[in-house]
Each structure stands twice: as structure tokens, then as C-alpha cells.
Hints:
By secondary structure, this protein is of the alpha+beta class.
Amino acid sequence: MPELPEVEVLVRHLAPRLLNKTIRAIQILDRRSLRQTTPAAFTEALTQARFQSLQRRGKHLVFTLRKHRHSTPLIAHLGMTGRLFLAGKQSSLPRHATIVLGLARENLVFEDVRRFGGMTLDTSAIERLGPEPLEPEFTVNTLSQALARSRQPIKIKLLDQSVVAGIGNIYASEALFRARLDPCTPSQLLSLPELQRLRSAIRRVLSQSIRFGSTMPLDFGGSASRNGLFYYGQSPEHAGNREERFQVYDREGKPCRRCKTPICKKVQAARSTYYCPRCQA
DNA sequence: CACCATGTTCCTTG
DNA sequence: CCAAGGAACATGGT
């Protein structure tokens, strides 16, 4: 699930549903999902705390809770396979549920098959993030400065969360296709017009994907069998539309939508990059 | 069995 | 000190 658009849609879904609700009980089923804090400290800080706000920063969910007139931040990251959802108290927990925050009538469930994600009270990871790509702070100037001294391929640099926050492996390829840039271009060689195209392409593809919903409709589609667990983006028109949503990602060998040339795949920094060899020359 | 997967961090090397 | 590359983390799907 987790790149900026998916997290954003999830945040918009959860925020109004959590507002002013109080955590009554906490179950930590797998302490590996707790980062930089002990179960005791986590439970002590959050039990009887009330949800005041929920925002997104990069791929992180940032909850602000209120307890004894103090604000406590709670950070969640979904890693590769993390999910966060509200479920009725009577519904059974999924196999890989790791942390359950019990509210009055529902549970906020964190589940994570691979356990690359987690929750923490430590905000330091947030502070190291680069600008929010959809905010005015993300300018050609800041992008240019972040890339100026790097010879690394631009595709790899886009995955660096200190350059710009929230882009992952899917949207890095998608943004470069829309900007018509070769993923292998050394970052410092990008011209000003190219950087403008890249910034604009990043903003367009992220905004469009937020509008569209989740990139992982099948994950949510399976929720029906889980009785009561629900997610965003599970409307029928979202089923099986991965192919329509992406211009290049996971489309190796299929015709470029713009020029019909077969899409290529190559490995950079141990991750797959997809691109059109003609449009992105 | 082999390889691949939406992410991040830590260690090593230059 | 910094940039860059690679392994590690853990599990499931094809």
C-alpha cells in the first residue's frame, strides 16, 4: 500500500473517524512493530489519550493525541505491507495484526505481514524528511539544490526521502515517464527546464493518484472476506485497474501509451525501474 | 526451489 | 565527513 497517494487517501479516510475518540486499551501482539519504544512506555503514553488530529508527512501517518492536557505524537509507517483500519470489536483480527488500539466501540488495527513498518512515539524520522511534493515549499530551486552534487541516477535519488518526501518505486518510474527523463541521468546533469518538468510531473502523478484512490485495489478487494474490515478505494470500478493506472510501472514489454515502443525494465539499486526507451531517451 | 515484491536502515568501501 | 553500493530485515505470491 504505501506511497504518498495511498497514505494520503488512508489519512483522509481515518481522520474524521478517529477525531475525539479515546484509546481505552492497547494490545501489542508483536513488539517488532514498535520502534524505538518499549511496550510499557507505548501503553502508558497512549492509554486514555484522545485523537486530536491525523496528518500525513511523506509516507508517515502522524497522529496527535491529547492526554492530561499534553499532546503526544504517534507516528505510523506502513513499510511494504502495512495496513491500518478500523474494525468492529467483535470481528476477528487478521493473522498478521501486530498492534491493536481499542476504542469505545471499534479497534484501530495495525497489521503488517513483512513487518517493515511500525509505530513509534519518536518523531526524529519525520524531521529528516525533505519537502512535501504537493506543497508550495517544493520548488524547482529546492529540488535543484538537493540534486546538485549527486552523480547518482535520478531514479535512485527520487527514492531518497530527504530530497522529496513520499515518492516510492512505483511513482518514481511514473514521474520520470511523464517528465520524459531517462531514469539513468546523473542527477546533477538535469537542466533547469528538465527539473521543471520533473517537479511538475511529480505533482501531477501524485495528485492524480490521490484522486484515483489506492494503487492496491486487490488488497482492499480482499477485505470483503474479512467481514467488516474496510478500506478506502474498494468501489467496483477500482477492481483490476492496475493496468489502466500506470503508464510504465510493471508494464515491461507492453507498448508505450505514447509511442507504442515496448516498455523496458532495468534494475537500479536492486529495484526495478520501468521506462520507455524512446520517450525517455 | 528460485525469484520477485509498494521501504528503510545499517554497514562497508572509496 | 560524505557519496554510493549492497546486505539485511520478514513473509508471501508466482
